[in-house]
# Entry
Amino acid sequence: MDEHWEGVPELPHSTCVEEWVRVSGGVSLRVLLWKPADESLKGIEPVVVVPGWGSVFEGWRPLITEWVTRRPIIYIETREKASAVFDNPKLSVQDFTIDKFSNDLVEVIGFYKLASGYDLFSSSLGSTILIDALQHNIIEPRSSVFVAPNQNFKLPFFSRMLVKMPFPNFTLNGLVRIAIWAIERKVKEEGQRVRYRRTLLSQDAVRTRLSARSLIRYELPKNLSNISVPCGIISAKSDKLHGLENVKSIVERIPGAQMIEVPSNQYAHEAAVLVEIEAFHSSI
# Structure
């Protein structure tokens, strides 16, 4: 598990630094900062990347490998991931509320003294956190691209029971295996199945359960009219896990948001999606 949560991923034509940034509540988050080796790109504003629930870097390696040759990247791992360091080992559901996730990102962005010229790129839970933050006007990026944001985190009945039941911690790894089985039955894309299997097997099971218990209570506000930055929302018809109808609803509620349809969820993790992302950035 540890190989996913520490060490600098070496990518060609770039340099990377790994840091842990201290945020409120005695938590430190892992942040990876890439700079293109090309000196002519010095001074270009970065892209802040916030991946999904429990997401490991390997799932984003194809996209990031190409992107870091064009722009600096600030890749933030959120607090439910095994890389986060908590001063207090006695965690609770309240450590994983959307407000805590949002405040973390505000503090990391503040730590790096980012001006309003930076762009956001996020997926799944990362997208939901950022939509919530933008609605509450606590961050001011130039633009934001979301991949398959979650309207809510409703789980199938059986999965909800597994999350809510007070199983002892030593049983959690077995429950993770059951979750993998359930997801693989639902997800049709092979690349997406591989990513979720790898992601779930690399998690801190206690944090996974606590964050799931918190997130299943959350739903994005119906009113998203406070969001004033240009937003593009990437989704694929074949993505059964995030639900195309919910994604379309989010697009309709964010003023001026653009729907960006791609062939598959896996495509959104590949370098090829930079065509759509850069076309969106050029249009704003």
